[in-house]
Amino acid sequence: MDEKKKSKGLPKKERMKIPRTPMPEQDPKERSRNFSEVPLGYTPEMAIKEATRCLECKKPKCIIGCPVEVKIPEFIGLIAEGKFIEAAWTLKETNALPAVCGRVCPQETQCEITCVTGKKSKPVAIGRLERFAADYERAQGKMQIPEIAPPTGKRVAMVGCGPAGLTCAGDLIKLGHEVHIFEALHAPGGVLVYGIPEFRLPKAIVNAEVDYLIACGMKLHLNTIIGKMYTVHELMEEENFDAIFIGTGAGAPAFMRIPGENFANIYSANEWLTRINLMRAYEFPACDTPIHRGKIICTIGGGNVAMDSARTALRLGAEHSIVVYRRTRKEMPARDEEIHHAKEEGVEFHFLTAPLEYSADDEGKVTEMRCIRMELGEPDASGRRRPLPIEGSEFTIECDTVVVAIGNLANPIVPDTTPGLKLNKWGNIDADRETGATSIPGVYAGGDIVTGAATVIEAMGAGKVAARAMHEYLTKSETAATT
Amino acid sequence: MHEITYREVITPDVFLLKIKAPVIARKRKAGQFVIYRLHEKSERIPLTLADADPDEGTITLLFQAVGKSTMELGTKKAGDQILDVVGPLGKPTHLENFGTVVCIGGGIGVAPLYPIVQAMKDAGNNVVTIIGARTKDLLILEDMVKAASSELHICTDDGSYCEKGFVTDRLKHLVEQGVKPDLCVAIGPVVMMRAVCNMTREFNIPTVVSLNPIMVDGTGMCGACRVTVGGKTKFACVDGPEFDGHQVDFDELIKRQAAYLAEEKTAREKWTCESGQ
Ligand SMILES: Cc1cc2nc3c(=O)[nH]c(=O)nc-3n(C[C@H](O)[C@H](O)[C@H](O)COP(=O)(O)OP(=O)(O)OC[C@H]3O[C@@H](n4cnc5c(N)ncnc54)[C@H](O)[C@@H]3O)c2cc1C
Ligand code: SF4
Ligand code: FES
Taking the model in full, what pTM does it have? Predict the structure, then answer.
């Protein structure tokens, strides 16, 4: 191991002195009007320099912070040696979608927060290095088809082609099972394609990952809604699947249920982002799907989805893109980087503000939002201080478009059509955290449909856990059948 | 890809297409719809199924070319392909033997009404059907609906065919003559459904309507299709498309349907100009 250390040629102390390598980005003024990716990525020189900062700890703290336990010091060490392709392959041993995770994972609360370098200076830029290695591999066209076990003769169905389903599919293919993935929409990727905007995660990256799985043997069925075209039970009984993984996401938008919320030009974040990302409404009329290009666009909420919506609003040409959030900057669940980018681009923030009702013109199009100021009270169940309305502080914000980004509920199609599938009190599927097993034998679930809206990497982790348990289930039933 | 196997021009702007979609043809039930996307740049457009043939593996769409996307679909011929067809979507019609069911269809709404007429009849009901159109040339599916109904009444706004008047006039007439409907199903333009509901409310006839708000995904993911029913927000694509007509906020629906009128005009003009149609 000293071999490797020597290759960096710098003692620990010196390495600690190297400052964190910044990421080149598109200029805020320019980028707020285009849909191209904001961070431009490291050059090989930058990546090597940043990789040199890693101390290659004996007991790496970063790995503990990573939900799928990526071999962080190992891949970073390879980058430091200039072995970029090998670094990507090391990443892929545990993380099927490194180019995606390198871009959208909240590293600042996962691996980077625990990195020891962070104690004295800034943590190693693990996410940026992950992105670099994965992008390098893709650009070189050196995607490696992994070794695939001989066919087991078992058929498995994935319901939903988001990160949970794709990860589960990838693992089960490698183990020799015949994997079919069913997606309701006309494009694979789940939230990665219909929700997260191009300027944060280019579609080409997601498509490359899906193509890779198809090259490995995954069979993709688009435009197929499970529960409508086939029920889960029909998949097992009529279509002869031996096991099923449900990864349908948290796709049902929540609304505030305040007066006027159904006026025209009030969108859920899902609709707003789907029209723009999946349907390319920003290219209207070259593409057929329209969207209202408002001048003053208000987004309600404080998460990543709200940041994506508000930043998208600027790119559609809004004069004012205003985020309305009932707590303060400190309580915002969005990633720091997203808030920072939004501010840089000119998104305005109204903190401690909650909408009460909307008004509209004669055509039923929204014209203003009546709001109330809030103050923070005692901490609630989530540990965050509860926002309380300040009596008499009502005021109005003029607006012509509103995006409601206050969260997602469980989509009811699969639960409603799958008798015997146990749900929790929020309507999410009740699945064992250790195995993904549901109340129906052979049926597993993971991702947002189990946890409620969470993160890409957690959905991937759940897909992995389920794949392991499903493999065991499939091979066990094999021995049971033959003995 | 879904092949168009048959095309018929019903009226100058109403078209019937049979499309290969074997699983949907096998699984669909009365009241359900599909969403199609013609090509990579198209919108996702919902259309209620007018019929299906499980043996042939085809579904039948009957639509009026009103916007760019339906006009473009109307130019497609047998042998052409449609990129995506997804379905069957929505909840099927609730069927039981109610007794006497009055089925009312206006304009293009007669198309989605037809499978419901059939299914209500199969469920043992006495099905009294009323269909109407602005003028004779716009009346569709007369023979098929007649064959499926116990009794058929036809009216046109301008009196160019059968009775002159609105479907509500016929309904009123029937009730006054002593017909006692146990249920009414009304599908057509929103103003027609609203008029029917106002009348059946007076007569105390439970009424089901099928709503057609703007949709995007059709899976309950986006909320574009939200409608207010009994004071609560419902998603028409998963909770409907059929609802208790006496509870529906039709005014809100009309306004939400008109949200993109300007954009629709732009798209239509651009297409008409570029395609030379
Ligand atoms: C705008 C936005 C921004 C986000 N930003 C981040 C971020 O920066 N970092 C991060 O870690 N997380 C982020 N998230 C959260 C993250 O995207 C999700 O947690 C993750 O995608 C969940 O993965 P999943 O596989 O469980 O579900 P999804 O990605 O939701 O995929 C589910 C798929 O199943 C399909 N489906 C649903 N029902 C059916 C059915 N009946 N039959 C067939 N298919 C069906 C859906 O169409 C969808 O494609 C963001 C989410 C949104 C909406
Ligand atoms: S904790 Fe930080 S320094 Fe240590 S191995 Fe992980 S990334 Fe490198
Ligand atoms: S069309 Fe998107 S929820 Fe109904």
Answer: 0.93
